Amino acid sequence: MPRTITAYSNPLVKHARDLRDKRHRREKGQFLAEGLRILTEARDAGRLPVQVFFAEASAVHPLVQALVADVERAGGEAIATTPAILAKLSGKDNPQAVVGVFEAWETPLDALDRDASSIWLVAERLRDPGNLGTILRTGDAVGAGGLILIGECVDPFSVEAVRASMGALFTVPVARAEWAPFLAWLRAGPGQLVGLSLDGGDYHGARYDAPTFLLTGNEAQGMPEEYAAACDLLVKLPMLGKADSLNAAVATAVMAYEVLGRQG
Amino acid sequence: MPRTITAYSNPLVKHARDLRDKRHRREKGQFLAEGLRILTEARDAGRLPVQVFFAEASAVHPLVQALVADVERAGGEAIATTPAILAKLSGKDNPQAVVGVFEAWETPLDALDRDASSIWLVAERLRDPGNLGTILRTGDAVGAGGLILIGECVDPFSVEAVRASMGALFTVPVARAEWAPFLAWLRAGPGQLVGLSLDGGDYHGARYDAPTFLLTGNEAQGMPEEYAAACDLLVKLPMLGKADSLNAAVATAVMAYEVLGRQG
Fold first, then answer.
1. What's the angle, vertex CA A99, arms to CA A94 and CA A103, rounded to 5?
2. From the CB of residue A47, how many other CB atoms can be counted at a distance below 10 Å?
3. Do residues B78 and B55 make contact, with C-beta atoms less than 8 angstroms apart?
């Protein structure tokens, strides 16, 4: 049976709210995900929250009922609460009907199966959580084997990244690694490393060999020369305008679809 | 000569701060843009701010000096101020070195020259300012003739949209129209209307004829059936993952680059 919490000061509310903060996420090894669509996606991917908060008014929704029942069956806790507390948890005036507290996980490089897909996404020093989430969402759409984050990237378990991923955080494996171990892992098997670079050749005529690892550099600076030098191929998207740049998540997506269509 | 303002209560500071609010922007017909890169882009596109705020410490930067001189030469006001006030204006702890107050403008449909480009972007009921700005940035990169916003869209002059556009707001014309007048304008001349729709055919084998008008629907709902029925062609990006969706700005960009590469 769900319990009911209506006090802001309740420790469970405080704990969930604190998960919006990176340090707290790291200490507790947990994170927040919001919205019936994302929580249902998580459930279908085999991840259930340890706690699910839902508005009492939304408990009549059959999908909310099913989710609550699944959480309780798995030993998690279902908590009916007020719209005001949900708004506090989600940091939005117009909160989603459900918010879940999930155990975080790590995927080591060695757990990735490079034969699982012909396309992999790699991003280095990605700073914007919206970009990270959007890249995960694209990764889901193109059937990428996973996203590998190199160096100091934004936290994939941040509220904004989870939200922008629209649930793809639960379906696309995310590994975090430094550059040297990544390169060693990559070169221990087949794989074409393709870097997006303003110094690259036209992306449209290039040959892509599976599995292709698409490397996107930092939003402001692009990738270090050392990384570019290690790539098997450098490509550039044509830019006809005044500015010589594209959003990092957009450039990744255009490349990913090109590779999908052309892989040799 | 720049004047110096160090008081939060100064009416110019208050006015600029209020431009973060949509209602105030509409009343005053002005908006905010931040950052040396974006303001320089604006200047190069022929738009100078009526007021430019800059941190006194950054006045030694030659690009800031040049911008300030240009603003004053054009009859605008240059205001040296504190990092704290710049932070208040930009709503960020780590503010940009310059913030400009610009006069807003409108581009009526009839002012668009459809022969100016072979690709145009059209979005209906776009709700996310980051998506709007990102689509403008992509529009600049692919050399789009402009972005046409249909129906109730987020304000292209919002701080988040301007920021995500990275200056493309100043280089890519933005028109706002209702659906019926847009369709009448479109059909009064050549133009292939291509809609992104889950009911469409594969985008990769399709034929695109210039000028192509790429229509993207609302982030959550896609486009109304009536709009889809009016399209000359409906296309879909392959989605191999669990979720049947892509970010709207990402889908627009993948399509725009496809059209760029394949136009007949």
1. 150
2. 18
3. no
B247 vs A contacts (CB less than 8 Å): 134, 137-138, 164, 249, 253
By Cβ distance, the residue of A130, A240, A254 closest to B253 is: A254
- In this structure, the strands spanning B147-150 and B119-124 are parallel
- CATH 3.30.1330.30, applies to B3-103: yes
Helix (H) or strand (E) segment spanning residue A234: strand A233-236
Query: For chain A, which residues make up each domain, given as ranges?
Result: 3-103, 109-262
Q: Does this chain's domain A3-103 share its CATH topology with A109-262? A: no
3-state helix, strand, coil in chain B (%, to 5): 40, 20, 35
Q: Which residue has the tokens 């209020």?
A: B18
Helix A248-262 × helix B248-262 angle, to 10°: 50
Question: What is the residue-wise DSSP string for A130-141?
Answer: HHHHHHHHHHHH
Local structure of B261: helix, strand or coil: helix
Q: Do B254 and A249 touch (CB under 8 A)?
A: no
Give the mean model confidence (pLDDT) for residues A34-61: 91
Of A134, A143, A257, the CB nearest to B241: A143
Average pLDDT, chain B: 94
Smallest Cα–Cα separation from A148: which of A126, A165, A171?
Answer: A126
Axis-axis angle for helices B129-142, A248-262 (nearest 10): 60
**Given an 8 Å threshold on Cβ–Cβ distance, is A243 in contact with B172?**
no
Instruction: Give the dihedral of Cα atoms A191, A196, A199, A202; nearest 10 deg.
Output: 80
Residue in the structure block whose two tokens are 């309740």: A10
Q: Does the structure's ipTM exceed the value 0.95?
A: no
Q: In terms of DSSP bridges, do strands B51-55 and A233-236 run parallel, antiparallel, or are they unpaired? A: unpaired
- How would you classify the pairing of strands A98-103 and A51-55? antiparallel
Q: Which residues contact A105 (CB under 8 A, 6 or more apart)?
A: none
Is the CB of A246 less than 8 angstroms away from the CB of B253?
yes
Distances in Å between the Cα of A3 and the Cα atoms of A16, A32, A52, A54, A78 are 16, 19, 11, 11, 7
pTM over 0.90: yes
What length is written for chain A?
A: 264
CATH 3.40.1280.10 at A109-262, yes or no: yes
For residue A121, what are the β-bridge partners?
Answer: A147, A214
Q: In what order do the strands lie in the sheet with B233-236?
A: B174-177, B147-150, B119-124, B212-216, B192-202, B233-236
- Is residue A11 packed enough to be buried (19+ CB in 10 Å), middle (13-18) or exposed (0-12)? exposed
pLDDT mean over B60-84: 93
Contacts of residue A210, defined as CB under 8 A and 6 or more positions apart, other chains included, come to: A118, A119, A192, A263, A264
pLDDT band at A264 (very low <50, low <70, confident <90, very high): low
Structural contact between residues A214 and A256, judged by C-beta atoms closer than 8 angstroms: yes
Q: CA B198, CA B202: separation in Å to the nearest integer?
A: 10
